[in-house]
C-alpha cells in the first residue's frame, strides 16, 4: 500500500538483533539484493559478478551481473571504502535501483574485493548508505537524494524501526517519506544535526545509573543504523564495563548472566532528553550449548580526530528508540519504540 504517496515501507530482516537488512533491486530485469540501510555512510555497493573467486565474502553473496541488465550504463571509475571493521574495493556502474517501490537511476559500486573480516559474517549482500552527500565517496549523489529530487515523498524524511527480538516479524521497517505509527508511542523529541552534514548530534553526557560518568563537557554522537552496537572511546567504555563487572574476551564484553537483572541502566543525554537503555536493551542473551552467554552490546572504538572522539549509537539504541531522520530540517527525532 503506498500510503506515503509513492513509497511502500521496506520490511527488514533482523538477524540475531545484530544485523538488520532489507531488499532492493538493481537492473532490468530486477536483480535482488539484501542491503543494510546505513546512516553511517552514503554510498551504495553490492558484490560484483566480476569479483575474484578468492574473495570468499564476495562469492557467498548475491552478485550484480551487468551483462544481464539492459539498463546498465558503463562507468568504471575506481571505488574503495574503508570502515573501521573492514574495506570494500571495486568500480562504479550505473543502473536502475528500486528502493521502497521508487526507481532511481543510480551510480553505485560493484565490489570486486571484500575483506573477509567482517563480510564473511554478513547476512546482507551490500550496503545502501543513507548519509548526507558530503560524505559520499567519489562525490556520488546518494540514493535518498535521488529520491528526494523526484518529489514523490510526502516529507523529506526516512524512519527506521528495528525489532528487539528476532522472533518478531517484521524484524524491522524502513519508511521513506514519513514514519510508521505502528512502531512507536508518544511524540518525537527532535535535535538538530551538527553542521557537519552527518547524522550526528551533540550529546550532553552519558550516565550509568544515577551517576554522570562520561562526556560531561559535551561530545559528538553519531546515529548509525548500520552499526550493531554502541561504541564509545575505548577508555570510557572500558571504565563503563568495569563498573558493570563485564570482562573483555575475544568476541567482546561479557557479563555473568546471573548478574544481568541487577545491572544499572545507561543513559544518553541528547537534545534535552534522557534516553535510557536498561539491561535487557544492552545485553544480548544467547543460550548456547555450553550454557547462557550474556554479551554487552557496547564496544570500545577510538575514532581519530578530527572526526573523533565520538560515540556511535547503533541498532541496540534504535531498537529502543524509533528514529526519524529529517533531511528537510536537518534534525533527528526519537520516539519510544513499541
Ligand atoms: C555495514 C558496515 N558497518 C558495520 O557495522 C557492519 C560490518 N560488518 C557486519 C557483518 N555488519 C555490520 N553491521 C550490521 C548491522 C546492520 C544493521 C545494523 O548493524 C558499519 C560501518 C561504518 C558505517 N556504518 C555501518
In short:
The protein has 338 residues and is mainly beta. It contains six helices and 25 strands. The chain has helices at residues 56-59, 116-119, 143-148, 234-244, 279-282, 315-320; strands at residues 10-15, 19-26, 31-38, 44-47, 73-83, 86-99, 102-114, 126-129, 157-162, 172-176, 184-192, 200-208, 211-214, 219-223, 230-232, 247-249, 252-255, 266-270, 273-277, 283-288, 291-296, 298-300, 310-313, 321-326, 331-337.
Describe, in plain words, how this protein is organized in 3D.
By secondary structure, the chain is mainly β. The protein is 10% helix and 47% strand. It is built from six helices and 25 strands. It has helices at 56-59, 116-119, 143-148, 234-244, 279-282, 315-320; strands spanning 10-15, 19-26, 31-38, 44-47, 73-83, 86-99, 102-114, 126-129, 157-162, 172-176, 184-192, 200-208, 211-214, 219-223, 230-232, 247-249, 252-255, 266-270, 273-277, 283-288, 291-296, 298-300, 310-313, 321-326, 331-337. The strands form four sheets. Strands 2-3-8-4-7-6 form a six-stranded mixed beta barrel. Strands 12, 13, 14, 18, 19 and 23 form a six-stranded mixed beta sheet that branches. Strands 16-17-21-20 form a four-stranded antiparallel beta sheet. β12 (200-208) and β13 form a beta hairpin. The longest helix has 11 residues, at 234-244. It starts with 9 loop residues before the first strand and ends with a strand. The relative contact order is 0.16. The mean pLDDT is 95.
Amino acid at each position: 500500500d503506498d500510503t506515503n504517496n509513492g513509497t511502500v515501507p521496506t520490511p527488514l530482516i533482523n538477524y540475531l538483533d545484530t544485523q538488520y537488512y532489507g531488499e532492493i533491486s538493481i537492473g532490468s530485469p530486477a536483480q535482488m539484493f539484501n542491503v543494510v540501510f546505513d546512516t553511517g555512510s552514503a554510498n551504495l555497493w553490492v558484490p560484483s559478478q566480476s569479483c575474484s573467486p578468492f574473495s570468499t565474502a564476495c562469492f557467498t553473496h548475491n552478485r550484480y551481473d551487468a551483462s544481464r541488465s539492459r539498463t546498465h550504463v558503463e562507468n568504471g571509475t575506481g571505488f574503495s571504502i574503508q570502515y573501521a571493521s573492514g574495506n570494500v574495493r571495486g568500480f562504479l556502474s550505473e543502473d536502475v535501483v528500486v528502493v521502497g517501490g521508487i526507481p532511481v537511476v543510480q551510480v553505485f559500486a560493484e565490489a570486486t574485493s571484500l575483506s573477509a573480516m567482517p563480510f564473511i559474517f554478513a547476512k546482507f549482500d551490500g550496503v545502501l548508505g543513507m548519509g548526507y552527500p558530503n560524505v559520499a565517496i567519489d562525490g556520488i549523489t546518494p540514493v535518498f537524494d535521488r529520491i528526494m529530487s523526484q518529489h514523490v515523498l510526502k516529507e523529506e524524511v526516512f524512519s527506521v524501526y528495528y525489532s528487539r527480538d528476532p522472533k518478531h516479524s517484521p524484524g524491522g521497517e524502513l519508511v521513506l517519506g514519513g514514519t510508521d505509527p505502528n512502531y512507536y508511542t508518544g511524540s518525537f523529541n527532535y535535535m538538530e544535526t551538527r553542521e557537519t552534514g552527518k547524522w550526528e548530534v551533540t550529546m550532553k553526557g552519558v550516565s550509568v545509573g544515577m551517576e554522570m560518568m562520561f562526556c560531561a563537557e559535551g561530545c559528538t554522537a553519531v546515529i548509525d543504523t548500520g552499526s550493531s552496537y554502541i561504541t564509545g572511546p575505548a577508555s570510557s567504555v572500558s571504565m563503563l564495563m568495569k563498573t558493570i563487572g563485564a570482562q573483555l574476551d575475544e568476541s567482546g564484553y561479557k557479563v555473568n548472566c546471573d548478574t544481568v537483572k541487577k545491572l544499572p541502566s545507561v543513559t544518553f543525554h541528547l537534545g534535552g532528553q534522557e534516553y535510557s537503555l536498561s539491561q535487557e536493551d544492552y545485553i544480548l542473551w544467547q543460550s548456547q550449548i555450553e550454557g547462557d552467554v550474556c554479551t554487552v552490546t557496547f564496544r570500545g572504538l577510538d575514532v581519530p580526530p578530527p572526526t573523533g572522539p565520538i560515540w556511535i549509537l547503533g541498532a541496540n539504541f534504535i531498537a529502543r528508540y524509533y528514529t526519524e531522520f529529517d533531511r528537510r530540517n536537518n534534525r533527528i527525532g526519537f520516539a519510544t519504540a513499541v
